[in-house]
Amino acid sequence: MSAPKPDNRQLRNLFEEHFVGPRADRMSRPAVGRYRRILKAIATYLNREPVVSDLTEQLVYGFNEWLASPGAARSSVPGKYPAATLWRALARRGLVPRIPAALLRCILPIPSNRGGRRKLSNATSAWSKEELAKLWSACQSARGFVGAVKASDWWSALNAVLWDTAERVGTVLQLRWEWVDLERQWIRLPAETRKGPQGDHWHRLSPSTIESLRSLGPTPEGAVFVWTNHKSNVWSRYGRLLQRAGLSSDRPFDRLRRTAAAAYRGHDERTKGGDS
Q1: Which partner from 11, 17, 18, 164 sits 20 to 30 angstroms from 118, CA to CA?
Q2: Global pTM?
Q3: How high is the pLDDT of residue 106?
């Protein structure tokens, strides 16, 4: 099967036609100005006009990192994740593919419990900073080996990737070295590894996570997280690890994912055990 052709429609043209033009469902003048500044900044970042095919998770996070660099005039570009703000606005009109749900969960505010929404149970509530510190300490002090790798290295690396991506553990356990770029600090998680009809996801990893991954491989099997026993044992082994640290072993991976997503949304920081 041949790869789909790139969608080279320019985002600026789509915006002007459907949000500003004479037949458009117009928005306010200040809003138009904000989106135009975002479009202009993205064009500067890419060194060309952005097109529909550029709308990826890599653009959202890469553009934000570029905005934080010296001379990027961050103050003139509104919003915490401006590329995602533009993407979502275009998608709401059906002009571009929808922004992936997992990315939305990382960039949108945590919903309140108004309107009768169900509260999350304690089993899926976020870890506190004190609990996170115990969690990282438990991984770093794990004894024995996982295959040929020290258990402390294996669990620390798994925890680090889960924290940086807020992905499901079943997805991360499928990670392969050909999807990892240690130099550029990116990983790719193909659509077939993820739950739901979503495309490939790219994630930027922190330098400490990259160092943790280096301690694991590469491996002859090609898998990053080689597990020699049945996959279901990952959950039980992790649970025992947490119990020894005095932490709850009830759905711990869900809690870590919830904590990571909440950290990105609430503070845009990734605090591992209280260290920034």
Answers
A1: 164
A2: 0.55
A3: 59
